[in-house]
Structure of MITD1 protein:
Amino acid sequence: AGAETVKRAVQLDAASRFQESLVCYQEGIDLLLQVVKATTDEAKKHRYRQKISEYMTRAEDIKKHIEKEKQDGKYHKQIRIEENATGFGYEKLFHEYLTEIVSEVWVEDPYIRQVHQASRYLYNFLRFCEMLVKSPSKVKTIHLLTSYDAGSGRSQQIRVLEEIKQSLSNYGVTLNIDFSSSIHDREIRFNNGWMIKIGRGLDYFKKPQGHFSIGYCDFDLRPCHETTVDVFHTKHTKKM
């Protein structure tokens, strides 16, 4: 398993997919270290240690390269979510970037509102907020910029957002809500420099088959619409 993992790491490395390559190098190194411990043949141990040393050196070089890209504001990672794919709940998608130093989050999405009397957009935002509350980060402020619902749905939109705001305050989190009639981009930013752009915003999950079907409560089990996730790291996160 260790050999296969580092083989995958080398392939990803050659394809300039450095972030994924680094993860595979780290996992492969851990697996190979376990093999070394279990091996009694000294010649094999020596060969394994040589390879591990080479992989560790490359992993460190990749770490430095990624860190430099972050510092230069050039980091870019793209995740392709295939049609009907599962395993892309908010925790899975965002946990890598929600480090302990994150205290402020910006959400720009024009569709955090009612659509055709279906409130999934608002529920998605609520789920996202729940994920932030549960994360290792110490989020204290969430800024939401969205658009007003048209027609009779506006009052319900405002009521639901105020309810979310009040509920978040019970956890020591402030929700600031602003509206724009011209907003069309969708992005999420953390004050540690990470910015995530999702083609479909927070609404990339398909409608569940029923209220009691698998995936209704657990988004990791919910099939997704096809979409692209672009991740950037910038020195400075712009404010609204």
